[in-house]
Specification:
By secondary structure, the protein is mostly helical. It is built from six helices and no strands. 74% of the residues lie in helices and 0% in strands.
Length: 179
């Protein structure tokens, strides 16, 4: 499992580097996005990945990797929004956003390590297309929970679904990098 931890960290480093570059370009404009807007952005990326996996012709010169990175970063943003709430104006410095990013990723990685222990790294035998489908399923669940104003009877909350999507996207990127 030590390799998994190192591979996870390498994927997150790539995602974090892009997040910080975009923070430098755009600031924390994403802080005005409501949760359903972030969910929809993630959904668009997951749908594009599924299209890339199914279609023979690709018309935009960006592959699955950049979309999985986007899913991870949007999920981190969503976790921040759950904790901090939506604002009317950007309110985070690069340093503050970086700290929040790192906190959300650390919690999510620990969840992955715990589940990875219990499931015996079953994800290593999964296809990237299955990981994509699981992300889409989680998105549909999140949309339903959002439509229910966040209420669930027996299911885990929205935050756990975002964390699972981050971990599935990391697994997909590890698989794609291993090719």
């Amino acid at each position: 499992m030590q390799d998994t931890s190192k591979q996870y960290d390498a994927v997150i480093k790539t995602c974090r580097d892009l997040f910080l570059k975009k923070m430098s370009d755009y600031g924390s404009a994403w802080r005005i996005l409501r949760l359903p807007s972030l969910t929809d952005q993630i959904f668009i990326k997951a749908q594009r990945i599924r299209g890339l996996q199914q279609n023979e012709v690709q018309k935009v010169n960006e592959g699955q990797e950049s979309e999985f990175i986007g899913i991870i970063n949007y999920c981190v943003m969503a976790l921040v929004q759950i904790e901090r709430g939506v604002v009317e104006q950007p309110d985070l410095s690069v340093n503050d956003a970086t700290k929040l990013y790192d906190e959300k990723v650390a919690t999510t990685k620990q969840l992955m390590m715990d589940k990875n222990h219990d499931y015996g790294e079953a994800w290593r035998d999964m296809r990237v297309s299955s990981l994509t489908d699981l992300i889409l399923q989680k998105l549909l669940r999140v949309k339903q929970i959002e439509d229910n104003q966040g209420k669930t009877l027996v299911s885990e909350g929205i935050d756990a679904n975002y964390q699972d999507m981050i971990n599935y996207a990391v697994f997909a990127l590890i698989h794609l990098n291993d090719k």
